[in-house]
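Entry 14. Ran structure prediction on the chain below.
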Amino acid sequence: MKFQFFNSNNRLRNIADSDNNQNSLLFKIRIWTADEVADFLDVTVGHIYNLVNRREIPFKQKGKGGRLYFIPQEIFDWIFEEVE
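Output, structure tokens:
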């Protein structure tokens, strides 16, 4: 299943093509919340929870029913798996 998260793939490609993308602000934040992932992907938080429930997006959860956490690099890698 392919996802269209960005109005333009140029934004994502520019991040990927950047020589210093690992040092960019995107990767200085080590853990994201569902709200932050939704903002980054330009989707609703409900959509993020649906992806989590279907195990379609990489996430971490401490304990059963605990708060969800997302690692920016894993989200970035996941997007490229879906785009290609």
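The chain has one domain: 21-83. Will compare against last week's run tomorrow.
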